[in-house]
Amino acid sequence: MAQEKIRCLLAMLGTDVHSKGIRTLAQLLRDRGVEVVYLGEHNTADGVINALIAEDADVLGLSYSTATYLHYTHDLLDKMRKAGVADVPVMLGGLIHADDEPALREMGVKGIFGPGSGMDQIAAFLQDVTGKSLTGDASSST
Amino acid sequence: MSAAADVRGAAQITAAISGGDLRSAARLITRIEAADEAAAPVLAQLYARGGSTPIVGLTGPPGAGKSTLVDQMLAQYRAAGERVAVLAVDPSSPFSGGAILGDRVRMGRHNTDPGVFIRSMAARGRLGGLALAAADALTVLDAMGWDRILIETVGVGQNEIEILRHADTVIIVQTPAGGDAVQAVKAGILEVGDLFVVNKADTAGADRTVAALREAVEFRTHALGAEAWQPPVLKTEAAGGVGIRELLQAIDAHHQHFRDHPKQFAARRRSQARARLVECMAAALRARRGDDEQHDIFDDTIDDVVARRCDPQTAAKRLVDSMS
Q1: A32, A35, A42, A137: best mutation site toward chain B, by most B Cβ within 10 Å?
Q2: Per-residue pLDDT tens for B58-92?
Q3: How many domains does chain A have?
Q4: Quick check: A136 pLDDT over 70?
Q5: How far apart are the C-alpha atoms of B37 and B2, rounded to whole Å?
Q6: B295 vs chain A: nearest CA distance in angstroms?
Q7: Is A86 part of a structural domain of the chain?
Q8: Which of B92, B105, B125 sits opposite A38 (nearest CB)?
């Protein structure tokens, strides 16, 4: 029986150093049974895309706490298209302003989880976009 | 799908992976991790053409500096023009089955380098199947044509140590904080190490740790004779890049030793193959289903042994017989 796990790449772009949120998310996702590939801060779009390919991640999560996220996300999604990995869904978290959500969705962002978002929402999103279920059950392999 | 279509599909994927298609290789490793039987025909083709890439394994306790060492090794190999693949294995949560695979954080500067391929793998609480999955992933990396392969694993349990059986050179990473050599002897890692590294050598007690390890290693190799490889004990400060050049020289010296002693190299390859065969057979047994496809024979046998309807030895014979 195949053991399917959701593999989620988590990263921050540019000079943003406020990683408390994404580190917290990494732990919460692990506790839901997700395999988190954690890249940490100070990544470039090219670096994230290379990691995305090598790790064969099902979904990419980015966290922002600075106002430059429109620029960074646009650049990343553009480069993802050029690299042929635009099929991997992208979700954003952190300080995302509600006014920017339409523009981000227009770019191709699939999930936006700003302040006040809950884990159930994020877990439901992950299962929806990956088509895999989160059991959080470690006893499946006898 | 028919068997012929299977073989054709496998040949296509094999050609793509050998031709350097990273995404095909990455997806195949995902199939391997999921224990998907669809990977088997591709692996059979890749295995046939592999075996020439030197594989170096690193293990040690959490926080010993393995990922930082790998990062520094990558930097030096890249400076010498060598293309390197890394398989980084981390534990899964025994409670949720999830994992945080964070080894890449230490190697972040190589993310943009097409000469480096890093793949993270979670242990997934497999009953001994981890080493099998890792070995199959190594077969994929081997077929991709990298100059070297590094595999990194936390040395916390037998599963993780088993992975190292697939490496040609095994590096045991310790720190001065890791207790005296008695701890290393207890852990049973002296026997598998080809090289010993005391990392964080700038912290107190480093020389004592080195001396204690040397004594233990020499005590063991003394009995093996003059022709045997003498595992060196090296000091490094991975974060500062100190001692890395010497570490790479020691790895090369170990490869040279195998070239000079082909019988020892053949013995290593035989023990690798033996370990892998045993893992494959165990996996095949675990995957056995009853004729109705509903009953898991392995599970049923466990029930019989727990209930003392059958003793373990007889049960094992019954399982093996059921395979023929």
Answers
A1: A35
A2: 998 888 999 999 999 999 999 999 999 999 998 88
A3: 1
A4: no
A5: 14
A6: 13
A7: yes
A8: B105
